[in-house]
Amino acid sequence: GSEYAIPEGTVRIGELAFAGADSLERLLLPDSVREIGNYAFLGCMELVRMALPATLEKIGMYAFYGCTALADVTFDGQVKHWEAMERGNYWCDGIPATTVFCRDGSTDIRS
Q1: CA torsion through residues 43, 49, 55, 57, sign
Q2: Rounded to whole angstroms, how far apart are CA atoms 17 and 7?
Q3: b/e 36-66 (16+ beta carbons within 10 angstroms → b)
Q4: Burial classification of residue 28, based on how many CB atoms lie within 10 Å of its CB (0-12 exposed, 13-18 middle, 19 or more buried)
Q5: HSE of 88 in the Cβ direction (CA atoms, 13 Å)?
Q6: Residue range 39-80, pLDDT digits in tens
Q7: Per the confidence metrics, is the pTM higher than 0.90?
Q8: Contact of 92 with 64, CB cutoff 8 Å
Q9: 99-102 and 105-108: which strand pairing?
Q10: What per-residue confidence (pLDDT) applies to 92?
């Protein structure tokens, strides 16, 4: 498996940016990221952990669809910000994680 760090200053992860990158285990997102595009991590079957920055405002549809190993999702912001975030349809379908862990607690990943 591999690890990749998105460069600081990146604001948006583009549509299909890592789709099918089946050896990607861990991705490091800088605090500059505001949006994850549609299908950005589609089918990244080795991705096990995702730490989302507090600056994130939008997750596109099907962004993590089919990430069948993604069991650990954290968000570096508060639960209320997670629940208010714009998230596209089916963004997390097919992932084993059911909870997102935020700075001040946890909540259902789909709430």
Answers
A1: positive
A2: 14
A3: bbbbbbbbbbbbbebebbebbeebbebbbbb
A4: exposed
A5: 16
A6: 999 999 999 999 999 999 999 999 999 999 999 999 999 999
A7: yes
A8: yes
A9: antiparallel
A10: 95
HEC sequence for the chain: CEEEECCCCCCEECCCCCCCCCCEEEEECCCCCCEECCCCCCCCCCCCEEEECCCCCEECCCCCCCCCCCCEEEECCCHHHHHHCEECCCCCCCCCCCEEEECCEEEECCC
Residue 87: how many other CB atoms lie within 10 Å: 19
Q: Which residues contact 84 (CB under 8 A, 6 or more apart)?
A: none
The CA dihedral of 94, 65, 73, 53, to the nearest 10 degrees, is -170
Q: What angle do CA 48, 41, 103 make, to 5 degrees?
A: 55
CA 98/CA 70 separation, integer angstroms: 10
Length of the chain counted residue by residue: 111
